[in-house]
Amino acid sequence: MENLPAEWRNWIEENVARGCTRESMLPMLLGGGFTADVAEPALAEAFGRKPVARPGIAQGDSHCLSCHGHSVHVAMVLSNPKVLLFDGLLTAQECDALIALAQARMEPSTVIDDQNGAAVPHADRTSAGASFQRGEFELLATLEARIAALLNWPVENGEGLQVLRYAPGSEYKAHFDYFDPAKPGNAEHLAQGGQRVGTLIIYLCDVEAGGSTRFPSLGLDVRPRQGSAVFFADVDATGDIDPRTLHAGMPVISGVKVIATKWLRERAYGSTG
């Protein structure tokens, strides 16, 4: 609240007293010229909630960020919920090398059963995938350090990269990446590093047709382009899971889609407590 002028602090206090919700007040603050990184913590404080740290780029007007000597272009910023689009996160050579590393490990993709926590095949997800340990290869360590610098989030808070291949007709129907704490099967996963607070999807090749990442609640489609990536925060400014992050990998119509997914946890992945 201290980052707001007195008149805005008074406005917030008056509307909280009237019974207005955070969701109804946020657009007014954003329309008043405040960024989400100022408005959301102020509202959280007004409603007795403590803001939490989340992955994301530093605020500013720069369109190009330097990450361990590699330049990444910021192509789009959506503040609420937090969605970022990057160009040039990986070079074409890095994309091809990552695809080659994954080729020998490809297996049918699975989903987490939210009742028992097991990884199981599911008709909603028809891709093939390959999983890696964090830092398993030099290329992975380089990319993980770059991602950590870009999103201001520790390397150790990231899961290992997962590479996914979608043939024509393959898709991943609308889903969430966070673990719903109300579902018993997610307790074991939440114990290993806490909640997923951010998702980064990196496009490793161009796709002839189809295969976009769709956010139905936002009316947003991100189309694959080699080396580009989309990031979204899986939780809101107070750390609550954010259902607006519902997203789908749309069916590939022509060509092949290959992506790398990086999930970021609230604390060191694999740690407990």
What would you note in describing this structure?
This protein is α+β, with helices and mostly antiparallel strands and 273 residues long. The protein has 2 domains: 6-46, no CATH class; 64-265, Sandwich (Jelly Rolls), CATH 2.60.120. It is 23% helix and 27% strand. It contains 6 helices and 17 strands. It has helices at 6-18, 22-31, 36-46, 92-103, 138-151, 187-190, and strands at residues 64-67, 70-78, 83-87, 107-108, 111-112, 119-120, 128-131, 162-166, 172-175, 196-203, 209-210, 213-215, 220-222, 229-233, 247-249, 252-254, 257-265. A 9-stranded antiparallel β-sheet has the order 1-2-3-14-10-17-8-7-4. Strands 9-15-12-13 form a 4-stranded antiparallel β-sheet, with no helix packed on it. A hairpin with a 6-residue loop joins strand 5 and strand 6.
Number of DSSP E strands: 17
Q: Which structural class do you get from the secondary structure elements?
A: alpha+beta
The figure for the number of domains is 2
In round numbers, the mean pLDDT is: 92
Share in helix: 10-25%
How many alpha or pi helices? 6
The CATH architecture of the largest domain would be: Sandwich
Which parts are unreliable, with pLDDT below 50 for 5 consecutive residues or more?
Answer: none
- The CATH class of the largest domain: Mainly Beta
Ends distance = 31 Å
- What is the alpha-carbon Rg in Å? 19 Å
The succession of helices and strands, N to C, reads: HHHEEEHEEEEHEEHEEEEEEEE
Looking at the structure, the CATH topology of the largest domain is Jelly Rolls
Estimate the global geometry from the Cα principal axes.
Answer: globular
Q: What percentage of amino acids are in beta strands?
A: 25-35%
Give me the CATH superfamily of the largest domain.
q2cbj1_9rhob like domain
Q: For the largest sheet, list the strands in their spatial order.
A: 1-2-3-14-10-17-8-7-4
